[in-house]
Amino acid sequence: MTSFPWAPGFIDGGRPKIVTSRFQYEDSHTLERYLATGGYEGLRSALARSPHDMHEEVRSSTLLGRGGAGFPAGVKWGLTPDGVFPRYLVVNGDESEPGTYKDRLLMERDPHQLIEGCLIACYAAGLSRCFLYIRGEMALAQERVAQALNEAYATGFIGKNILGSSFSIDVVLHWGAGAYVVGEETALIESLEGNRGMPRLKPPYFPAAIGLYGQPTIVNNVETLSNLPFIATNGAAEYTSIGTESSPGTRMVAVSGHVRRPGVYEIINGTTTFRDLLYGEEFCQGIRDDNDLKAFVPGGGSAPWFLPDQLDLPFEGRLVGAAGSMLGSGAIMVMDSTTDIPAAALTLTKFYAHESCGKCVPCREGGTWLMRILERVVEGTGTTDDLDLLLEVGGSICPGDMPHAASADLQLEATPFPYKMTTICFVGPSAYVPAHSALTLFRSEFEARVASSRSRSRIPVTVVGAGS
User: Fold this and answer.
1) Which CATH architecture is the domain 17-240 placed in?
2) 241-271: per-residue pLDDT in tens?
3) Which of 52, 107, 117, 204 has a C-alpha 20 to 30 A away from that of 17?
4) How far is CA 90 from CA 77, 140, 186, in A?
5) CATH number attached to the domain at 244-338
6) Are 326 and 298 in contact (CB under 8 A)?
């Protein structure tokens, strides 16, 4: 284990910090602070061994992708075909999932850590160039990363013969235009190529085989790459000593909604439970105004909802998936007992309907239909038939059984995640997920809404001035 004070870095009674250790400093984004706290030592360690050995170190660490799918990074790097060059690294910094804002903080507060992670990944996976794609609305993140790139070039950490080695690489910064669908890796690649951000069919366009400019391409998330300096410096054994065997290390979680202390927290992966995070004194400190918890979304706006009886599930992808949802992009949205459930479902469905790129008919049309049906229900003009119509329209986007969380109170059996879909990417299903979760778990609130609508429609209307 290294002697640097930030590695691993411990706070709050021994909780490790791997990717947020510098957040305590006001100047955490500067090269001076980065170098003073062990910055670029991971790159030096990587260059001191062969690319193959560094690749195997990452594979041994079982570093899981932090963008949503949770696929092991080391395994993903090995999917590129042998002998095909050039090959690229594309960094997905287009964080757009509702409730998620962890990657933005990493780019704003510690951009050099991300850049060092990019360099290590390119070296270990034999990649020819790195393209860093940042969401259009993230102005401060763009400025911080741009400044860090300039500093890294000026000091020889990027460019030709880095640190006196034979390794050379360039990093290209690209700003997006703010489309949710570009969070999907093939749509991001289309945008990078100057086209409208729309997903590609898979197969044949698996990025590792046919990606950017038709070449093999690895797409990694910002937080995923930010873990690499720690792994390169300290080794896979140190990394896997944190968390569990199937979910090692730490992960960042963004919590929003009805908690006393919303924010971004770095938690121990695999062992921390939702109850620990929402009620722990070192984290969110409970529900606001001492209200009861009603429901929470465990993995960003596109994840099926959980009820309070799922609070003791740990942050372990397989267990959460078996319970009917996903950890996704690392965002928890909390709803307390005062929440208007139909209105909450409408808010999320409206977002995804608006963000459809229009390529797939079930998404382009179905998302808008779902939104209009929910609007009728929320506005008080809906009918009982609308509730069945919601499920029928959603079934054209996600055929078969839609995933939902098990609930002891409602006697529901969990449907395993993920869902089937008739669209190329996840945007279409994402419009249906909140509507389905809300209607499945809180149907009585929808029925009360339409019953109230029928009651109002039966009130006799007196026409003022009639017959005069």
Assistant:
1) 3-Layer(aba) Sandwich (3.40)
2) 999 998 999 999 999 999 999 999 999 999 9
3) 52
4) 12, 20, 11
5) 3.10.20.600
6) yes
